[in-house]
Amino acid sequence: MIGFFNGTATAMITPFNENGINFASFAKMMDYQIENGTDVLVILGTTGEPATMTEEEKVELMRFAIAYNKGRVKIVFGTGSNCTEKAIKASVQAEKLGADGLLVVTPYYNKCTQNGIYEYYKAVCAAVSIPVIAYNVPARTGVNILPATAERLTTLSNMAGIKEACGNMEQICETMRRIRGKMDLYSGDDNLNLPMLAIGAAGLISVASNIAPKEVKEVFNLMKDCNLAAANELEDKLLPLIDACFTEVNPIPAKAGCNMIGLNAGIPRAPLTELEDKHKVIMQNCINNLGLKSV
Fold this sequence. Notes:
Distance between the termini: 37 Å
CATH topology: TIM Barrel
Helix content: 40-55%
Largest sheet: 8 strands, parallel, barrel
CATH superfamily: Aldolase class I
CATH class: Alpha Beta
Strand order of the largest sheet: 1-4-5-6-7-8-9-10
Number of helices: 12
Order of helices and strands: EEEHEHEHEHEHHEHEHEHHHH
C-alpha cells in the first residue's frame, strides 16, 4: 500500500525521571512537535528506549499518547521484536489502543534469513488491519532487508513502507526502484534525508526533529516544491546538528539536546549513559548556531 503518510515523523524520545516516565514532559514534547508541523509521532521506536522499559510502561505511554493527542496527528507505535509472537502480541495491543500505524523493526540478534524476514512481516501484517512500516537498521539488528525482500513485502496488503536506515544509498536506490508505486520509502537516516527525498521517499522519520522539528519539516517542504537550492542551504545548516545527534549512540545526544532547549528529557536509562561533556559543548553550539530558542 502507498500513501499512509507523506511528510515528517519524529522518532520520539521517552523522558524518564525517578518515578518512571515523565508524562508532563512527554506532553510538552508532543505539543512542540505538533506546533512545529510534524505530521506523525513515532513512539517506542529505538529512540524511545523500549528495550529498557517494562511492558506496563509501554502500555501506559501508548494510552497517554493516544489520549493526549486527541487525533491531531497520526500516532505510530514501535512493536517489533526478535520473537515473532511477541511482535504480534504488541502489534495487536497497539492497534486496540488506537494506533494509526506500526513501526516494526526486523528481528534482532537471531539473524534470520531473508525468507525469515518475509515470514515475520507476513505474520505481523496478518494479525492487524492498520498500516505496518518495516524498519531496516542492520547496524543495530545484524539483519538487512535486501531490495528483493523489500519488493516481496509489497505483496502484503497493509505493508505501508520501509524505514530505511541501512546507510547504503546504492542499496536504497535499488529498493526504491523495486517498491516504487507499491509501498512507500521513508528515510531513517537523518544525514540521508535529502538524497532519499530526491529519489522519491514519501517522508522522513527523524531523530534530529526531536530538537528542530520546524527545520526538518521545511527541508521536506522545499524538496516537495522542487526547490533544491533552498533545501540544500537549509540542510547544510542542519547537518552539524544531525552529526551532533550521533556523537554517541542514539538517543543519548538527542536527550541532551532536548534538555538544552527546555524539554525536560532527563537522561537515558542504563546501560546508556549521559552525554559526555565534550559532546555537550558540540550540541550546545549547534543549537545556538541554528538559533533554537528555549521551549
